[in-house]
Amino acid sequence: MTDATPRSYPQGVPSWIEARHPDPDAAAAFYGALFGWDLEERMPPGAPGSYRIATIDGRDVGAITTSEDPAAWTTYIAVDDADLTAARVVALGGSAGERWDAGPGGSAGRGADCIDPRGAAFSLWQARERLGSQHINAPGGWVFSDLRSREPDEAFVFYEQLFGWQVSGMDEGPSVMVRLPGYGDHLAATSDPDIRERQFGAPEGFADVIGALARIDDGPDDWHVSFSVADRDVAADRVVELGGRLLGTWEGYWTRAAELEDPQGATFRVTQFAPDAG
After folding, report:
1. Over the stretch 189-227, which tens digit does the pLDDT of each residue have?
2. pLDDT tens readout for residues 138-152
3. Residue 261 CA to chain centroid, in angstroms?
4. pLDDT-derived band of residue 1, with 50, 70 and 90 as boundaries?
5. Could you tell me which residues come within 8 angstroms of residue 270 by beta carbon, excluding any fewer than 6 positions away?
6. CATH code, domain with 251
7. How far apart are CA 66 and CA 23, in angstroms?
8. For the chain, which terminus, N or C, has the lower number of CB atoms within 10 Å?
9. Residue 65 domain-assigned?
10. How many domains does the chain have?
11. Which domain holds residue 58?
12. Is residue 42 part of a domain?
């Protein structure tokens, strides 16, 4: 194995992000300018709508697509079988839309849009050729997603039953880290063979972290995406220059973060790795 080994995602690990916007052209211009993404249209000529893959140095970050709903970021969670997992979502009190195949003949993968019992939307992704995000935890790339809820303990039960997630007890800013036991072993055996050495001294279970759980004071439950940047304040200023809004900032033990809104109203976070920032 080498550093070029593609990153794969076992069941239960968030694996892909997608910006769904009424004006995908404007969204592509905004995020391309903010993060330095290259964007390639994947919809066939003449097909309705748009689906652009965002990349950095040829590595997939996520996608921007057309939506008639209000602008928002969607988090996909990897599954072995989208049909079986969608049925399990329904059995646990959530809802699942029609399953769909992506790419010519379904070559990219199979997915389903779901809503958890408290109303937070997420999607399932059964990977085929498109394994998931490849440029992560580096400037311009996805870091992870937070499940935000007014009653996080209640909200978490659904995902604990569906995917086997555990609350780690490790805090970062307003969030507590969520882990999937065995994920660190998967990374060590596949795309990140040096993960144990690189994370020497980190809290037990740190390599298994797959996301975060956060309490919010108001608003509906949702999934909230975070992106890595070299400098939080420079990135926040750039968002405002591009027509977005700065909603707030905070410092955690490892990061300096800013909560932001793009010009079409989708919220997201940028984080600067800064140990002992808090």
Report:
1. 999 999 888 887 778 888 899 999 999 999 899 999 999
2. 999 999 999 999 999
3. 16
4. very low
5. 226, 227, 228, 229, 232, 235, 236, 239, 257, 258, 260
6. 3.10.180.10
7. 7
8. N
9. yes
10. 1
11. 14-273
12. yes
